[in-house]
What we know:
It is a single chain. With 319 residues, the chain is an alpha/beta fold. The protein folds into two domains: 2-135 and 273-298, Response regulator (Rossmann fold), CATH 3.40.50; 138-271, 3-Layer(aba) Sandwich (Rossmann fold). The chain contains ten helices and 15 strands. The protein has helices spanning 2-18, 46-64, 78-91, 106-114, 138-153, 169-185, 200-213, 225-237, 253-258, 277-288, and strands at 20-24, 34-41, 68-75, 95-98, 118-122, 132-136, 158-163, 190-195, 219-222, 245-246, 249-250, 266-267, 269-271, 296-299, 302-304. A seven-stranded mixed beta sheet has the order 1-3-2-4-5-6-14, with helices on both faces. Strands 8-7-9-10-12 form a five-stranded parallel beta sheet, sandwiched between helices. The longest helix is centred in the first third of the chain and has 19 residues, at 46-64. The radius of gyration is 21 Å and the shape is elongated.
Amino acid sequence: MKKALVFVLVALMAITSVFAGGANESSGASGDVHRIGILAPAVTHGWSAGVAYYAEQRCQELADQGLIEYRAYTSNNADEMTTQLDDLMVWGADAIVAFPQWTGMEVPIQNAINSGIVVVNFDIEIAADGVYRVAGDNYNMGEEGARYIVDKIGTEGTVVILDVPSSGSVAELRKQGFLDVLGEIAPNMNILTYATQFTREAGLADMADILTANDHIDAVYSMDDETSIGAIQAITEAGRDDIKVITGGGGCQEYFNMMPEYENLWVESALYSPDMVMDAVDMAVAILNGEEVEQVKIIPTTIVDKTNYQDFLDPNSPY
């Protein structure tokens, strides 16, 4: 575990360095070489690190083929991201792939679109006319989580939802999909909802309190792999064997590798991989090449557990 954490920290440092204004510009640029800008939040979470890693990976592949030039930035708030967006406009970006996690990005992105720049948002939906978007299916993640839990424990039992109200529509959609399906296929399920965060530290602390307050739990609906890592630690340390299922969401390599370790606990993740950002880069290039694309591309949910986790391992991923 310590070796894995060291690897992740080293990878995060490398990606943060690259995305602090990294660029790849061909000396032999022609009119056919598109200029692509990447805007992402600073690396504060493993999933965000994965977004940076995969965006950089895809941009570098296209740059090596002589198809694009790119500049990439990370930001700590909306003001910083807005300044970086302005820098990309001055640079002459033809398209911008943005992960506008900060509130307040609607007007700057709309201004970029109005100036003729193609903007493809990754993951986040905002109110801007003409913006394209690539995202996973948050609602369907909840639906699939509910089906998975019912498949493992049946239609009756006690299920804890680890909600993350601070994440806005992400948790809202996942929770709604989960509750809608449970209402259809397991209406007698006892549901307990607790607030937490998308971090393993919060998962550990909050799950420890939940275990103290509840002497029997059949399953845990967690929406995030890192939250689940902390929750599993709490379950293990408490010596609890009543919990048969815990879900997750994302694409964390450490979490995938934990899946076969537990004989009596089904560890599941609804894949919401940060490598979807590569689809956003490809969409931007396709639009600039005059191809017709859908305004929104939603990538279906894939369930990962100990039966198939090896298919999703990527030793180079920092997440």
